[in-house]
Specification:
single chain, alpha/beta, 10 helices, about 35% helix, globular, binds adenosine-5'-triphosphate, antibiotic resistance, ATP binding, ABC transporter ATP-binding protein, P-loop_NTPase, nucleotide-binding
Length: about 280
Amino acid sequence: MPADPAPAVAVDGLVMRYGDKVAVDGLSLVVERATITAVLGPNGAGKTTTLETCEGYRRPQAGSVRVLGLDPVRDRRELLPRIGVMLQGGGAWSGVRAMEMLDHVARLHAHPLDTAMLADRLGLGDCGRTPYRRLSGGQQQRLGLAMALVGRPEIVFVDEPTAGMDPQARHTTWDLLRELREAGVTVVLTTHYLDEAEQLADQVHIIDRGRLVASGTPEELTRGSSATVRLVVDKELPAEAEAALRASVDRWSVDHDVAVRSISFGSRTLEDVFLELTGRGLRHD
Ligand SMILES: Nc1ncnc2c1ncn2[C@@H]1O[C@H](COP(=O)(O)OP(=O)(O)OP(=O)(O)O)[C@@H](O)[C@H]1O
């Protein structure tokens, strides 16, 4: 029987400081392979520092980090071809054209993906000749993602992958990350968006002030003493229909001994409307 492979990421008691400032304070977490794991937390929680330590850019000051069973600093040469990194803020030179940059990164890998296909998939087909600094924020993000994926990594670290993207680009990116997971790739992402973590992640780690404050599946983390029931109707409700609905809900709550904590009437979210009007595919802006 082959031994179980090491987890994708194992962080144990990690401590990282910048001068006197403790950025990561005894953090431990495990990421299983072929999962999407979201690291959630407010600004300054220590997410980027943790990811950069996993990527081998920073050496742990205390504790240990293993990625695919390897030490990201000591075993960097062995690990580098097996991981993909999408940096916050791009990582491309300002004057380079989008496809030149992607082709350049592809040439650093032994078995890269077809760059034209990848660019097309990410909606970058029309801006291949555009200099990096002239790309929109969302296009820069997508190019950064393409650069992280082109080498067929076993694990990909993506720092706020959809920051600055329009809703279609977000959904296309989510679909792509899900496909990667189906293909056996491990995805570790940081995000500020709760809906992103809820939609995508198999496992969520919430960190605050450098400490792990909760871990679990989105269901585990959202399960509690209350539940949400959502009703979507096909037209705006006249006042009498709204009143009748409230009265029915009141009767239902008595009949079933359920306390209704809140009830709200409103329209669909802007994101719902935007997606419905413009379709799910990526807009080639
Ligand atoms: N190079 C640095 N020098 C000094 N302090 C730093 C440095 N990088 C990060 N910090 C500090 O360390 C803490 C953790 O920062 P980090 O970037 O890891 O958090 P984050 O969770 O990724 O935040 P954000 O969501 O804003 O990107 C913050 O207080 C930050 O100000």
